[in-house]
Hints:
This protein has a four-stranded parallel beta sheet, covered by helices on one side. A three-stranded antiparallel beta sheet has the order 1-2-3, with no helix packed on it. Helix 2 crosses helix 3 (100-112). By secondary structure, the chain is an alpha/beta fold. It is built from four helices and seven strands; from the N terminus they run E-E-E-E-H-H-E-H-E-H-E.
Amino acid sequence: xxxxxxxxxxxxxxxxxxxxxxxxxxxxxxxxxxxxxxxxxxxxxxxxxxxxxxxxxxxxxxxxxxxxxxxxxxxxxxxxxxxxxxxxxxxxxxxxxxxxxxxxxxxxxxxxxxxxxxxxxxxxxxxxxxxxxxxxxxxxxxxxxxxxxxxxxxxxxx
Length: 158
C-alpha cells in the first residue's frame, strides 16, 4: 500500500529510487533528505508557508530538553493499550513539524515491545518545508512529505 497519494489526481503514488509517481504520470522528486514535497504551488498562500527554519530549530532545542517527554510517553502508552492485538502499528502525524512527537512515540513503542507489536510504520506531513527537512534528516526510518493538512495526500482506507 502506498504511503502517499497524488495531490493532483488522488491516485496512489509509487516510490522509485528518486521520486514518487502516479498512474497518471504526475511525478514528485525526493529531496536529498528523503522527503517529498506534495504541496502544489497553487495551494500555497505564501512563498514559504508554515514555520521558518529559525522557529523549527528553536522548537527542536526546547523539545530536546525533555519538557514534553511525559506527554509523548503517555500518548505511546495509550497507543499500546489499543494496539495490543496488532503486530504492525501505523502512525501518521498531521502537522508533524520537525518530527519530535512521531519519533518519540515510535521509539517508546519499539522499546516496550509489549503485546504483539512487531514494528511501527510512521509517516508525517507539515506545510513547513523547513520542518519536514529537519524531520526527514533526523528520522530516516519514517516517511515525510510537505503538504497541507487541509488536503492530506493520503490514500483512502479500504
